[in-house]
Design a protein that fits this description.
Layout lengths: L7 H11 L6 H4 L4 E5 L2 E4 L4 E4 L2 H4 L8 H12 L12 H13 L2 H4 L2 E5 L4 H16 L3 E5 L8 H5 L17 E4 L13 H17 L8 E6 L2 E2 L5 E2 L2 H13 L4 E4 L23 E4 L11 E5 L18 H16 L2 H22 L3 E7 L2 E8 L11 E2 L1 H13 L2 E2 L1 E3 L5 E4 L7 H19 L11
Helix pairs in contact: 4-11, 5-11, 9-10, 12-14, 13-14
Length: about 450
Amino acid sequence: MSYLERGNETILAQQAERESNARTYPRHLPLAIREARGVTVTDMDGDEYYDCLAGAGTLALGHNHPRVVEAMERTLNADRPLHTLDITTPAKERFVDSLFDSLPSAFADSAKIQFCSPAGTDAVEAALKLVKTATGNRSVLGFQGAYHGMTNGALSLMGDTDAKEPISGLMSDVHHLPYPSDYRCPFGVGGEEGHRIASRYVENLLDDPESGITEPAGMILEPVQGEAGAVPAPDEWLREMRRITRERDVPLIVDEIQAGLGRTGEMYAFEHADIAPDVVTLSKAVGGGLPLAVVVYDESLDVWEPGAHAGTFRGNQLAMAAGEATIDYVLEHDLDDRAAEVGARLRESLESTADRFDAVGDVRGRGLMLGVEFVDEDADWRGPGPHAPDGDFAEAVQAECFERGLIVELGGRGSATARFLPPLILSEGQADDVAAIFEEAVEAVANGRRSTREVTA
């Protein structure tokens, strides 16, 4: 029997038997995907789902978009090279043209690009090496709640200690600073006062000769923290981080790996604050669904010697063709504006759900990068924010969504935030369907009408 003739249960059982215990998504989303198109996927049993995970935000145009498929087929049919290390090709140069066209001219006009190994975490590693080489310094400023990948250097920047604890002795010199949040403000005040305190804290820390922080090689931040549960930074705070770093000659690295290419309602999330960073890390959507990662940075930092940073798979030509097609389509069809409009519609519906159920503590995000945090108002809680995060409730909602044909991922503190990262081509009608399914799922859990399912561990 071929795999296409087998059902979900059979394939999931085989995956559990043969694949690493580190696998994650199948534990909560028990399906084997047979086919996918646009914003939907169909499993081996013929059930269809709205995909609001979309490769963790990778699929900006959804599954098998005709423009992307055509670009890949054209490359394959013309016997173009598929793997070229860092030797250039017309496909590579076209990709760089499109990528630079998508960036603000104030940044792109003096930018250089470094192609990395294909994952976003590889771009972060390259960025760290870049600023350390350029400045001669070692320490890095990161932020609480941050997620920048799973390699050693990237893990050292993570705000969550659980994932990095086994290799903590190998971590580089990272200082985690408070990240502003209206709902879970690290200073307990939130709003404008909260982010002003956060800014002053950082500035005072850097200027205090007894802070214990050595001269930093750089600061890295996410304009919208993704894995932390779609937490957007206030624009004024971002402008302050840019001022503070510029005045002290500290390179500012902006991680746009998940937020970049239109998802937040601007082409890049840092554009909401009208700032120009020194370094931008990119992956996910810029590869059109295929593995590709780059670092784009100000030419003043380009002091690497030849061969100082390499990677076998940095010449993925098929990804460059798919990426060029994706970037051009996003630009031509103003999908950043579409993400803002459809995202606002979806968020309004999610906020309506929040008004109905006390278990919803916060709805947040930007564009089509949204999060809904669940809380337990009766639990003892001494951390930031008014209530304890309720990961059990969130997991139950995720399961109910799945049963009703909706795929969402969890993240944030205590994995208590349902995260929405749908393709940017999501229509208003589809957004309404997603919101309706989600509300039904929340209602089912809140009223104790949870369905049961068996998940292959």
